[in-house]
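Task card 7
Instruction: Convert sequence to structure tokens.
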Amino acid sequence: MAFLYALPGAVAEGLIWGLMAIGVYISYKILDIADLTVDGSICTGGCVCAVLISHGVPVWVSVLVSFIAGMLTGVITGLLHTALGIPAILAGILTQLMLYSINLSILGSKSLIAIDPRANNLLVHMSDNIRSIIVAGGLIVAVIILLWLFFYTEVGLTLKSTGDNPDMSRAQGINVKLNKVIGLAIANGIVAFAGALLAQYKGSANINDGRGAIVIGLAAIFIGLSVSLRIKPNFVVSLIGVIGGGITYYIVYNFVVLLGLKTDFLKMLSAIIVTIFLAVPYIKSEYFSKPKELPAEVNGGDSDA
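Output:
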């Protein structure tokens, strides 16, 4: 009964983290960049949103500014990587470190800022999980539609080609460096957008909110893609699968917590979930798939010949 009671909250929070995972999907799957900026940019989105709302700025404006702030974090990582030649994974780590100080400054050197749901008409909040599910679901549908439209424009297609084959794209006259910056900006903008929703849902923004976000994002991606690839792999189905992966992750997460797992082991649980979904396809193909039989010609032809 406790699990069923907690289920709407797990779904609502899973939708928000699934939205964050869409941002990770863009950088990891489309651009082929392991971007660790997200641990900082999701916190940036939450901090900006919480501070603006606490100062009387309308919720929608606060969310929009959070999205723009997230895009700027992606631009920083992109420029560190493309203009200064720093490897992408290290550029993300450097930006993440910078963002800790920036986020602390946004919070006014406090570790937490609360958002009063009674004084503000928040988009989502844990006090009304059903409404939060409906609103978050609607926003996710809008984001997926916008991304689908964007990635079938000329700019979007060049972003895809940049991730698929940067050398070929460069030979075709595509500005690969600019595309990487644009892609990272969009990815981190979506991550910060999710951070703004997360801050509203929890009713606060914390300086440590983003820790481990990349692990949750990857978990949602691999859980979702392991299911969606069984249907028909395309862009929209993959994004829907990522959202489903976020929901599944948080349902499992809440179930294990209700079983009595100590909070000290929650981060390890996240890592184990990702490890399982990364390892299962390999284990299945390596140890459980039947070896293909070679044609008769390769085997030496007909033995009676």
